[in-house]
Amino acid sequence: MATNKAYIEVLVSIAAVIDKHMRSPTMLQDDLETASKSSSRMTDKEKLLNAVANLLPRHPKERIALAVRTDRTQIFITSSDDTCNLLELSPYLSGLWVILRDVAQFHHAFFLYLRERKRRLDNAGDTESKVVDEKNDERVAQFAKEGRDLYGKLGELVYARCRGRMDHEIKRRWKDFQNCLSFLRKASDMETEAQSTVIGIADELERHVWAILDGKIIQGPSGRPLGLYTLVAQLYLMQKKAEFKQHVTPLSVQYRNGEKLVPPTTSWSDNQSVQLPESGFDLCVYLNRVGAINSSLEVACISSKHSDIRNLFSREFTVTVTPPRYQTPASLPTTSAEWTAFLERYADREYIRFLHPEEIVRLLLEAYPPATSPVSAPARCHSELELFAYLYDKGIAQEMAKPPDGGEKEDLYIATSHRPCFACIWYFAVVRWDLRKYRLPELDTRYDFNRSTFPWQIPEGKLESERNVKYLFKGDLTGRLSSRFTEYGIAVPVLKNHIRTTTFKSAYYDHTCELCSSSEHQ
């Protein structure tokens, strides 16, 4: 008899394809926001862990999940890449930890100096304290130089490991970036001074991004070559300038949306505007992705300002890289008839009718070609699921849920380097809601539907054998999806006494019929 495992994996594959190709915005977003916590409520520790997790992957396809047990300062890491091992990861983390500790001490010393300076000014009767900056305070200038050196040192360490990810982001849409810059230089009916400003910004963007990609040296104001961290930081600072927001941002939106534009040699009154095709390229999103590693560095450094995080960096720590967890996934349907049979049986059970089942089947066959669908070889689960299964199997998750010595419990938080897929978020929501024991892993709303491709699996282990999470997850998944399918016009509800009886038969149809009609799974 088929199992909850097979039913779940096929249904997740269907949901991912429907949501990716047939809905915009995503129909599952409300569920994800309910199942997760907004970033504004994240603790400093959670922000730090997410930032560190983003500083670990060596290449674009590597996914990292990370958890920390602070009472013993144990760091647990699961990588989607089997080549990740303790010998290469531990020295990198040690170097990262040391520099972040120095950054934490730097922020603390700077804070104490500013507080003491303000106290002295108040005692002197200077109630309108002057602005403290590098120009009017020699000690502040020293602090500023020390901070820049620390950040540069941290960036040098991280980019030595992660640079390939940034280069990938640059190259992935390099042609779109170049076309957008060409548009900024040409398509504008602004006055000469504003147009000159836009052209200057476009030239600076190209110069910096090309220098990052090609390894070219750009001299800073002091004549020293700028490191990668500083180059990327300057891209961020450009976007914050008033000229960028006033002139470049509106034009980049026009380029993305393909709005009507006026050639520079004409005016609106000439009625010679042209309609560009919608490019879908967002310049600001592109620059933010190029600067994603820098953003994580900034978050890690800012989090270190807080006393509890500063104390965390002062401790010695141990690192555990969890072993890969392979499982044999279920086989997906391989023909149009088999996919149709599964959709019909699911629709019958949920009292809905798909409006365009043939289109769904076409998309499914494109996403999962028959030549690759039958998977017999074991495959990895998603990293965050593997890490939680490891922690539960070892009893660590249970221990962290117990208050140590009568004090407050330490919530188990699993940070991820990439956005978890909707199925992973729902799985953890089921664990929290149904078991009423763990507040984990508060994954923010960092979802990615492209990752919910077959095979997606629930890990086997102690939790599954004790709680039968697959059964709980299946009930939650089927109900939520049927609700979303009807809400967003993918399907319509039907009365229970008007369920059609299909006459189609196939091996896969019989297989799923047996699963869905089993009294065990009703």
Percent helix among the residues? Answer: 55-70%
Largest sheet: 4 strands, mixed
Radius of gyration: 27 Å
Number of helices: 20
* Run of helices and strands: HHHEEHHHHHHEEHHHEEHEHEHHEHHHEH
- Based on helices, strands and strand pairing, what is the structural class? alpha+beta
Q: What's the pLDDT, averaged over the residues? A: 79
Shape: globular
Record the strand order, biggest sheet. 5-2-1-9
Distance between the termini: 14 Å
Number of domains: 2
Low-confidence stretches: 31-39, 262-273, 438-451, 501-522
What is the strand content?
Answer: 5-15%
Number of strands: 10
Could you write a compact summary of the structure shown?
With about 525 residues, this protein is an alpha+beta fold. The protein has 20 helices and ten strands.
Descriptive account of the structure:
The protein is of the alpha+beta class and 522 residues long. The protein has helices at residues 4-22, 29-35, 44-54, 86-123, 138-172, 174-186, 192-214, 228-240, 242-257, 283-290, 292-303, 307-313, 336-350, 357-367, 383-393, 396-400, 422-435, 462-467, 469-487, 507-517, and strands at residues 64-69, 74-79, 260-261, 274-275, 318-321, 326-327, 352-354, 379-380, 415-416, 491-493. A 4-stranded mixed beta sheet has the order 5-2-1-9. A two-stranded antiparallel sheet has the order 3-4. The model is unreliable at 31-39, 262-273, 438-451 and 501-522 (pLDDT under 50).
Descriptors for this entry?
alpha+beta; 20 helices; 522 residues; two-stranded antiparallel sheet; 2 domains
What's the structural blueprint in terms of helices and strands?
Blueprint: H1 4-22, H2 29-35, H3 44-54, E1 64-69, E2 74-79, H4 86-123, H5 138-172, H6 174-186, H7 192-214, H8 228-240, H9 242-257, E3 260-261, E4 274-275, H10 283-290, H11 292-303, H12 307-313, E5 318-321, E6 326-327, H13 336-350, E7 352-354, H14 357-367, E8 379-380, H15 383-393, H16 396-400, E9 415-416, H17 422-435, H18 462-467, H19 469-487, E10 491-493, H20 507-517
